[in-house]
Design a protein that fits this description.
It is built from 14 helices and 14 strands. It is α/β, with parallel strands linked by helices. It folds into 2 domains: 122 residues, 3-Layer(aba) Sandwich (Rossmann fold), CATH 3.40.50; 246 residues, Dihydrodipicolinate Reductase, domain 2. The strands form 2 sheets. Strands 8-9-10-7-11-12-13-14 form an 8-stranded mixed β-sheet, with helices on one face. A hairpin with a 5-residue loop joins strand 9 and strand 10. Helix 5 packs antiparallel against helix 13.
Length: 408
């Protein structure tokens, strides 16, 4: 395997592939990019030209059969993940699947089972496990530096966007189209507007927060509950949510999301790990989404609080290594390639399987499913007139969403 290269193909030529994965795969001397598939011809052509990918396809099954890759990246909307994963597993192809893993836990179970039976890797796109700051937090937790940890609190907060049915937004879309850009696609707004996603902010960002918690404490929860809320009628899905989970050890953790606030975090995750000896806070800002060329040099901010902190309110900064060579998206791709080639993947001393795999994605989706099920029961109790009104609004939003094509 020393001289072997991992042959990688791609399904979905959008932003996450272009900015988060392909730049690092192209630079990896152990990788050969053999195919790219997308129903959007322009996106596909741009990706193939920029990353020198010879195989350009409009059909995923044809691409897998003709390129015969060792691994495939699934960077498509989540409602297509299950079918593509099963397709790859049947062919003995390792899978890297972007989050959210699927539409619900039933689909996640099918994906995980299929890959386990086929003996192929199913790695989830949970890049935060590779972040240098989060790795330090986990080491502080597992090494006993914090003492007994009783609680973990996490959040993801975003400012409100213009209403999607407003004149301002429609004008912005028209201006963007003059430069050949689809604003809804570029900003990922289909996540809140397309009925096929199966959920909104909790599905999109709740998966990240839950996985962060699971990674830090090394457990999956035994009890959980939560709530969601949709405060805007120009969206199909919820823009606010909160989950509370309890682990067998007794540790309690929370995950809060809100995309309708003027809080100080644009894109990223914040958190507090509370120990009886000391505590640590983290603020992880993913600068990639700002389009910054130096995004890999934006460190996670860590502050450690000790005995005197309640009196002084001062946390001691903990230095975090930065740079392209250790950037979380690069290391995530390194892991996928190294696993395919049978190379060492114990990067941080957590063992070879520290990345989020299929069972981890399934564990997060089970919690989210429960929260959505609770919300559905509440909605069933509402007056029929209220339900009918909501259905009319949802139908109106669906008409405004321009779904270009369906994946073959």
């Amino acid at each position: 395997m020393a001289n072997k290269k991992a042959r990688i193909s791609l399904v979905g030529c959008g932003r996450i592939a272009k900015e988060g994965h392909l730049p690092y795969l192209r630079e990896n001397k152990l990788v050969e990019l053999v195919g790219a598939m997308d129903v959007n011809e322009k996106n596909r052509a741009d990706i193939c030209a920029k990353f020198d990918i010879g195989g350009s396809y409009e059909d995923a099954e044809k691409m897998l059969d003709e390129t015969r890759p060792d691994g495939v990246l699934l960077c498509t909307p989540n409602w297509i993940h299950k079918d593509l994963t099963l397709m790859a597993a049947e062919r003995g192809i390792h899978v890297f699947c972007e989050k959210p893993m699927a539409v619900n836990s039933e689909q996640c179970e099918q994906m995980t089972t299929a890959c386990e039976k086929a003996g192929v890797l199913l790695q989830m796109g949970m890049a935060k496990r590779f972040d240098q700051g989060i790795v330090k937090v986990k080491k502080m937790f597992s090494g006993g530096e914090l003492g007994h940890v009783s609680q973990i609190m996490t959040s993801c907060l975003n400012p409100p966007s213009p209403r999607f049915d407003s004149v301002l937004f429609e004008t912005a879309k028209k201006w963007a189209s003059l430069f050949g850009a689809d604003l809804e696609e570029k900003l990922g707004l289909w996540r809140m507007l397309d009925p096929r996603t199966g959920g909104g902010l909790m599905l999109e960002m709740g998966t990240h927060l839950l996985d962060l918690i699971y990674f830090i404490c090394g457990e999956t929860p035994s009890e959980w509950n939560g709530f969601i809320n949709k405060s805007r009628d120009d969206m199909i899905w919820e823009n606010q949510g909160s989950m509370l989970v309890k682990f067998p050890s007794g540790l309690i953790a929370s995950a809060d999301m809100n995309m309708n606030t003027t809080a100080n975090n644009l894109i990223g995750e914040n958190g507090f790990v509370l120990g009886e000896k000391s505590s640590v806070s983290f603020s992880l800002i993913n600068g990639m989404w700002f389009g910054l060329p130096f995004y890999h040099n934006i460190p996670t901010i860590l502050l450690k609080y000790g005995t005197l902190s309640p009196l002084t309110g001062i946390g001691i900064p903990i230095p975090v290594k930065t740079g392209k060579s250790v950037y979380m998206y690069k290391r995530q791709m390194d892991y996928f390639v190294d696993r395919i080639l049978g190379r060492d993947t114990d990067y941080f001393g957590f063992g070879a399987d520290f990345a989020a795999l299929g069972r981890d994605g399934l564990a997060a989706m089970r919690v989210i499913d429960t929260v959505y099920a609770g919300r559905n029961k509440e909605m069933e109790k509402e007056e029929p007139a209220g339900a009918a009104k909501r259905a009319v609004k949802a139908k109106a939003v669906k008409k405004r969403v321009a779904v270009k094509k369906k994946l073959k």
